[in-house]
Specification:
203 residues; 2 helices; 5-stranded parallel beta sheet; 43% strand
Length: 203
């Protein structure tokens, strides 16, 4: 049995390609659903995030929220597939299932230049084929003051039970907290997260 990849967007690929800026896009009157045997991103990139596939070095993504249900054959995350830049104050509430490696509530793979600060994964279902984490699937970079919920649901063989599915030797997860449910969050947890964020010079 083969799964299919899908996307749902407000514009056709031609409309997106020919628009010089967003003001050149036509009025939205429907949502188009594209069903394919397999989808890849620009340049064959097979990572997907609910918002974007990749945050490049020296780029920033802040203050975003995702909810719903996300499923794919590839590396996947609630916010970003691959992170080389800076992500802060983002929240994932979506259920996630990906058959690939590097599956996370916030980021699939956090590269060595990647920094994730004050993000929350509130989903109780982040699961996949391998290397699954509540915040990040595979962490090579740095994570500060993030909160994740342990996955109790999901169809994958591996469910998120820690901040990162795999942490590289030099990677950091300072002030991060993983709990069984939001009801388990304590004042001590909040203080631990805030202290890690404040140490970076943020408040």
């Amino acid at each position: 049995e083969k799964t299919l990849d899908m996307s749902a967007i407000s514009y056709t690929p031609d409309e997106l390609e020919t628009a010089i800026t967003p003001t050149y896009l036509p009025d939205v009157y429907c949502t188009r659903v594209f069903v394919n045997g397999f989808m890849q991103g620009v340049g064959g990139d097979n990572s997907w995030g609910a918002i974007i596939a990749r945050v490049y070095a020296e780029s920033r993504l802040t203050n975003c929220r995702v909810s719903g249900s996300l499923s794919t054959n590839s590396t996947y995350a609630g916010i970003v597939g691959y992170n080389e830049g800076y992500i802060a104050n983002c929240v994932n509430e979506a259920t996630i299932y990906a058959q690939g490696y590097g599956v996370g509530g916030i980021v699939g793979v956090n590269q060595s230049t990647g920094v994730i600060v004050a993000c929350l994964n509130l989903s109780t279902s982040v699961s996949g084929g391998s290397i699954v984490g509540s915040i990040v699937g595979q962490n090579i970079g740095n994570i500060y003051g993030c909160l994740g919920v342990i996955s109790t649901n999901g169809e994958g063989a591996v469910k998120a039970t820690d901040v990162a599915g795999v942490n590289a030797a030099n990677a950091k997860t300072d002030g991060c907290v993983v709990v069984n449910s939001m009801a388990d969050v304590t004042a001590e947890h909040i203080a631990t997260m805030n202290n890690a964020i404040a140490a970076l010079g943020y408040s």
